[in-house]
Amino acid sequence: MDTPLTTIAVVGLGTMGTGIAEVLARAGREVVGIDISEAAARQAVASLEASTARSVARERITEQERRDILARFRTFSDLQAAADAELVIEVVPETYEIKQQVFRELDAVVSPAAILATGTNALSVTRLAAESQRPERVLGLHFFNPAPAMKLVEVVSSVLTAPPAVESVTRLARELGKEPVAVGDRPGFVADGLLFGYLNQAAAMYEANYASREDIDAAMKLGCGLPMGPLALLDLIGIDTARTVLEAMYTASHDRLHAPAPVLGQLSEAGLTGRKAGRGFYTYDAPGGQTVVPDALTPAESAGAVTGRTVSSVGVAGSGTMASGIAEVFAKAGYAVVLAARSQEKADTAKARIAKSLGRSVAKGRLTEEARDETLARITPAGSLDSFADVDLAVEAVAEDLEVKRQLFQTLDKVCKPGAVLATTTSSLPVVAVARVTSRPEDVIGMHFFNPAPAMKLVEVVRTVLTADDVHATVREVCVKVRKHPVDCGDRAGFIVNALLFPYLNNAIKMVEEHYATLDDIDAAMKLGGGYPMGPFELLDVVGLDVSLAIEKVLHSEFRDPGLAPAPLLEHLVAAGCLGRKTGRGFREYARR
């Protein structure tokens, strides 16, 4: 049995160190807070006083418990104060020089049995351990910000770390109410290793003027259910910190996806490091502020903007889940909808699916029976695209096959009246490729809904170099009328969401291929450490491994980046017919229904 960890020193009382100290003190540990800045130490005490006072006010703890917590937290300015600690957690600035100095001084202060933990998320734990006099007692203990709220703790072992030390801190993490995940020593570990690659790609997307900062952030929040958009999150983390993490990741991986986007360096050098500076990708009300204020890049009001075309009737082509969902969205919003399939029977089946969906809404009290009946009455099922002769907007939601879509658009070109807007819901194919088969490419645009269409708020509006301004304006106006949030993006593979989501999913698969972490640990890390609604392997199995592979191939083909090449494990599973939940087996096995 290793040493019980009852007295713990925290070196560095910035935001993270203060949060860790609070977690420890609340859990009954004696906490020695050390910082060379007396102001930082005073701020840490004030922060604990304020948070415990809020807990008393909310009746989560008693006043006596609050006094006990405060009594367990003492602050000092000298590392000598750590002499009696069984565990020391350093959370000093993210440079080898500073951390190595702290470890050298601690070697001369603490007992031989003490464990030394680094809070780094970017630097090599092995390198820090190798220069210590007790490398077997050095490990990584990576909390997530804010430490009192976030459940994940990554326990990082180097090749030198003794198992009893790992067992002790893992047990401590559980006693603190955290979820420990065991990982090896590589930059970013699991959560940040996946997160920062995604953040870097978002920064590069913004830098390329592909989409606005607001649209990138809205797309990832609404399209993936994330708590924050990537650029807002970079501002919160600190753009300089993100750059440091990415530099360390790139040094280890030489993967271009980890090479920091130049804009991160430019903002860092200019001192525009995010919230803490009052300005980063966004501008804030004050340094350290949380409120975004308008600046020169804030989108202007739409006064004087192009007026869209009148849309009163909509045609939806297709009979699958996406087509019926889109038809339901338009009908609910008051549009007359023609739902056309390859046969009348398929069209009738699609309308019946909509009736079931609306029935569920009635049962849950979200819709009245009268509203359901009115919605269904607006939908006319048809067995031919000839029924689109009078629609103002035609939306296709057929198979994700370029030749199939081209043939359909050739038919729409012949059938639809002049001035009708023709929209494709493709998620990965070039919109211009379907536009060019028509005699009116200026009327063609991408309108990428997300599944399930009635529930998901996002629509990616994809204009080609040929799309007319009033067609773009029409689709944006229609999105607002059907209560969706439109985001603008150009006609390139993946648009916003898939271009950022699928490289992240692919990198998670590579972690498993390399035996760095398990499926369960990676999923837990991203849900608990990143606030993701689903872990990457849960999501892959829901989306379908065949669909995921197809999107990865499109991204790799368009951008030609070696880092975007589909992970071999994904290709093997698809070849074996393991496609996820729909086949009963993907990365995990599922009970057959």
Mean pLDDT: 95
Structural class: alpha/beta
Number of helices: 22
Major sheet description: 8 strands, mixed
Q: What does the overall shape look like?
A: elongated
Q: What is the helix content?
A: 40-55%
Strand runs, count:
18
Low-confidence blocks of residues = none
Strand order of the largest sheet: 3-2-1-4-5-6-7-8
> Rg from C-alpha positions?
28 Å
Kindly estimate the percentage of residues that lie in beta strands according to DSSP.
5-15%
Distance between the termini: 47 Å
GO biological process, one term: fatty acid beta-oxidation
Organism: Streptomyces sp. NBC_00148
Pathway: Lipid metabolism; butanoate metabolism
Domain 3-hydroxyacyl-CoA dehydrogenase NAD binding: 7-185, 314-491
Q: How do the strands and helices of this protein lay out in sequence?
A:
Elements: E1 7-11, H1 15-26, E2 30-34, H2 38-57, H3 63-71, E3 73-76, E4 87-90, H4 96-107, E5 115-118, H5 125-130, E6 138-143, E7 152-157, H6 163-175, E8 179-184, H7 191-207, H8 213-224, H9 230-237, H10 239-253, H11 262-269, E9 283-284, E10 292-293, E11 313-317, H12 321-332, E12 336-340, H13 344-363, H14 369-377, E13 379-382, E14 393-396, H15 402-415, E15 421-424, H16 431-435, E16 444-449, E17 458-463, H17 469-481, E18 485-490, H18 497-513, H19 519-530, H20 536-543, H21 545-559, H22 568-575
